[in-house]
Give the backbone structure.
Amino acid sequence: MPDTATAPATDPILSVRDLHKSFGSTDVLKGISLDIRKGEVVVVLGPSGSGKSTMLRCLNRLEEPTSGQIIFEGEDICASKANVNSIRERMGMVFQQFNLFPHLDALHNVMLAQEKVLKRSKEEAERVAREQLARVGLADRADYFPDELSGGQQQRVAIARALAMDPHVMLFDEATSALDPELVRGVLDVMRELAQGGMTMVVVTHEMGFARDVADRVIFMEGGYIVEEGAPEQVFEHPRSKRTRAFIGQVAS
């Protein structure tokens, strides 16, 4: 009889089944399967070239899977009739590069997609933009242009822009790797607060402290496979795979 105390209460918000992705003759993803539940923070670790970012980009169809199935909120988003724009509205993504429009100040960078994609009025878009800039600690930088902001501040504007679209899931692809070390903490603090607020998050990162402290589950990838997954304590303190142990030992040294 199943243990109802530990059984999940809801169906996954995002399910991946036997996901493959090839670029020409190069197989990058070789059969990825995982479930992500509402409010869960999943951190994906692994060496460069392991397929982490490709997997993340497949989740919102920035990369087209070669085969497999991705179910998001009950919808097969790999189906030919899937509305990719609707999927991306509900699945925010923050990249390594900030991708802000240099000719727009922070406020209008956060307003633009709301007006163009969600068809919000200028007044509503501005209200939401100011709310989200305050949420990431940049209420006093609304009229600053990207070249007047530090890299960490630009990344926080990018996070505010994604949050302004009211996403159901947030994807972070090495969001701190382009930042100077002293700027990383501010971005990670914003991500921690989002996690504490119940945001569903899939985070590709090399920030081990963040993974230990914030993740509900840690996934280790190598060579296009999920090699290991589990609670942070299990993966970091008692990894089952030799490859996981070697990676953690190398990063921690």
